[in-house]
Amino acid sequence: MPNHLSIPFKKTYSCPIPTATRDYIRNHTEDHPDAYVRDINQWKSLREIGSGGVLHADRIKPALNYHAQLVFILAKLPSDIYLEFSYAHAFASPSSFPVTLRSIAFERASVLFNIAALYSQLAASEDRSSQDGLKRASAYYQNAAGVLAFLSTSALPQLCPLVDSENKPLDLTEDFVRSLERLMLAQAQECVWQRAVTDHYKNSLIAKLAAKVSSLYNTSLLSIRLAAADSRNALPSNWIPHLETKQYHFSAASQYRKSIDELEASRYGGEIRRLMIAEADAKKGFNIAKRAGVAEAVLNDVKSLLDVVQKNLARAERDNDLIYHQDVPAPSGIPLIQEVSMVQSIIPPGLQDPKSIIGNDSIIFGEMLGWGAREAINIYSVNKGNLLKEKIIEQAQNLNDEAEKILLSLNLPSSLEALERPVGLPPSLVRKAEEIRLEQGPTKIDVYLDDVQRLSRHVLAILDEAMDILDNEASEDEAARRETPMNRPPSYEANQELVVKQQRYHTILTQAAESDELVRRKWEEWEDQITELTRDEDELEALIPSSTVSMTGKAVSTSQTQIHARTLRGLLETLDDIRRARDDLVLRAQRRAEGDDIRPKVLTAAAKLEHEKEISPAMFEEVSDNELAKYDKFIQGLTEGRKKQEEILASIKSTNDAFIQSRKQDPAVKDREIALQFLDLAYSHYKEIIRNLDEGLKFYNDMAGILTNFKEACKIWSSARSQETRLLHRNMASLSIRDNASDELHEVPASTPSSLGTGVRKQTAGIPTLSSADWEAEELAPPPTKQKDTPAKHR
């Protein structure tokens, strides 16, 4: 039996690369899947020969080539393209479940693991009885260590943020991989030590080499002890005892070789002390090996060393007692043996420079715009839309609303028009009435109200259906628990995050319904007045009292009223000019946004980053910021318009106060003013109601999409739980059959409930956790409140 350990392959399973990749390209890029038929087929073919599982030196290059292509694929596509990769734990039992993740980063990490496993198995298969075999074995072990080091520093950091602790592959954790790397280095150093022994190097050098072997086995042992308990428990039962035995073996071998050096230098006391230490370590190693059932070769090696050490110790003590009479120093009194390392983690060149291993072969998806660049374009579009909406359109609307609110509070322009036009309709009111007539305002509002109510019921029904799915799953879970013991959380615990999300959605919908009711009450309050604005001009004029007050009266007060009225009219016209300029600025900003395409600039920047293996959206932030800066002039224009508007409104307030003081208190003028003001207010409420209903329709349409996704997430989660229930039931039935068969044959059962629990946990890990992004839906804030009076097996 071999006295070295090799790393087994992670067994993988087929995956639907063509289907998932075509769907992703079709749904998430501007390209057509047919443009990448060759690339997709190449990916599928490379995986078949490059994902590991075959022990042959010829498989090294295809595996390195596949890994290189995965690096470039990850530069073009995100890790999650809805393509599931399944791998069993490297040390998995035949009955355990594989880990399945939607992650190309997981595929890459697993491929690297299998490359390291291939190197380690090639090393273990070498004939170490020859010098050439030892050289090749040492080189293979160092390559295996290099691949594991590269896996730890390059691939695992990409994988870990994407996988929660429940679904994390136990053999792809930092401490676990680090332990395997140190083991490979220890075995490479052992090959060097063996060559030194065979070539009869000096004992002092052999001692130093052996000390380093022991140290490396010890660091491997420490790393695996730091790993999670699940990772340690997944190892074969004799794995850790093997490391312990080897550590003590080579510590003893180091002291034994150094004792020969002490003997040759006539330091007989030092010889005896080192032999005593060697005997103690060799005994520890032998006892562990014998008790834990490590490989017979390892047990024989340490037993052979123990016999030699004991024989030499008996001889040295006898000679010292009879002849030399030297004092035996204390253990702390002898110098430590300096370690000498002759190995290192050698990373294959094809890993550090992926392009070098691909050579003249085409890079998969080489013509596709990279994922980072694509995301940068998407992020820019979102940021541009937010900037346009929040800092330009909404700001402009807020300024318009602010001016309208102040004018309404001052009864403008109604009070001015009542005086300027004692009879007939003011032009502004004619325009407003015509707008409502053309839009069929009351009918439009009724239709909108019905649509909002219908959509409100629809989204609430979707939410209820989602909860029905969870309720049905909970009922199935309770029924299954009565039949089969289950090592998993009950439904009321497992679905807690989904229930919390449902409660949040329900609260949002309740708030939205309250806002809808406010809008409906506002319509009921103003329906008659808004309907009056749909009358013909003659009918509308008849509703408004006339006034005979003349602007040419001789009274001083009337003369003053004329002056203030003209000033006020000029200020109102200036305010209209500011509003028109603001509307024009918003329109120009919208046109700029419609024709704004950042893609050429991103492509130019991406071409300069071709040497980068990973291109992230953050690399294009400077390009994005420069492009968004084009909208600064519009924002600055709004700021300047705000200052002008504030100045004009302040002048309007003071002039209006003087205008009111100078007016004659003619009841006819006041009646006409009140009537005009009331119709102006009706128009303002009409616009506010339409705006609120538009917001409500958009809110419910967006919410319908969000809740549909939420319902689908509940369905997927429930389906996964149901599938898990069936697997658990089947496992338990199989366990029962094996137990019955074992009882009949009077043998130890093949599996126990505790071992079944381990397998169950592995399957549970295949279900996305509730904190996973799989269950996330875009959050939508409730609409603003409307104020009533304010506008597997392993190889």
TrEMBL record:
<dbReference type="Pfam" id="PF13949">
    <property type="entry name" value="ALIX_LYPXL_bnd"/>
</dbReference>
<dbReference type="InterPro" id="IPR025304">
    <property type="entry name" value="ALIX_V_dom"/>
</dbReference>
<feature type="compositionally biased region" description="Basic and acidic residues">
    <location>
        <begin position="786"/>
        <end position="795"/>
    </location>
</feature>
<dbReference type="Pfam" id="PF03097">
    <property type="entry name" value="BRO1"/>
</dbReference>
<comment type="similarity">
    <text>Belongs to the palA/RIM20 family.</text>
</comment>
<feature type="domain" description="BRO1">
    <location>
        <begin position="3"/>
        <end position="403"/>
    </location>
</feature>
<feature type="region of interest" description="Disordered">
    <location>
        <begin position="745"/>
        <end position="795"/>
    </location>
</feature>
<protein>
    <recommendedName>
        <fullName>BRO1 domain-containing protein</fullName>
    </recommendedName>
</protein>
<dbReference type="GO" id="GO:0005768">
    <property type="term" value="C:endosome"/>
</dbReference>
<feature type="region of interest" description="Disordered">
    <location>
        <begin position="475"/>
        <end position="494"/>
    </location>
</feature>
<dbReference type="InterPro" id="IPR004328">
    <property type="entry name" value="BRO1_dom"/>
</dbReference>
<dbReference type="InterPro" id="IPR038499">
    <property type="entry name" value="BRO1_sf"/>
</dbReference>
